[in-house]
Design goal:
Length: about 120
């Protein structure tokens, strides 16, 4: 991942943390697919918190002049997907995350240590 991507990841992770997102995971997918470089995955305890995290990320990306390509799931607030091209953010209700097991589908991905962003 390039410097620009790491800066964006840093801002997304901090935005999630600011809204108390849980179990933040950054999966490096650069060598596994051509769709994106990474997934950022987090959990929330309520639909309100899912939307709050999504709003915070979108506001921060607008400040950085980073345009969203696609947003999905916001109206239900159970699993919001924010597509920023090379970076795709998944914000799950805790039970939705467990049910879909997204991390299990990408077992070969390198897990980036999020401690470097704090």
């Amino acid at each position: 991942m390039g410097k620009l991507s790491l800066n964006v990841i840093d801002q997304v992770v901090k935005s999630i943390d600011d809204k108390l997102g849980a179990d933040i995971r950054v999966l490096d997918l650069t060598n596994l697919n051509a769709i994106c470089d990474c997934f950022i995955i987090t959990s929330a305890s309520s639909t309100r918190q899912v939307k709050s995290i999504s709003d915070e990320i979108e506001d921060k990306m607008k400040e950085l002049n980073i345009r969203i390509h696609h947003r999905e799931g916001y109206s239900l607030g159970r699993w919001v997907l924010l597509d920023y091209g090379d970076i795709i953010v998944h914000i799950f209700l805790e039970e939705e995350r467990q049910f879909y097991g997204l991390e299990n589908n990408w077992k070969d991905a390198l897990i980036v240590d999020t401690a470097q962003f704090f």
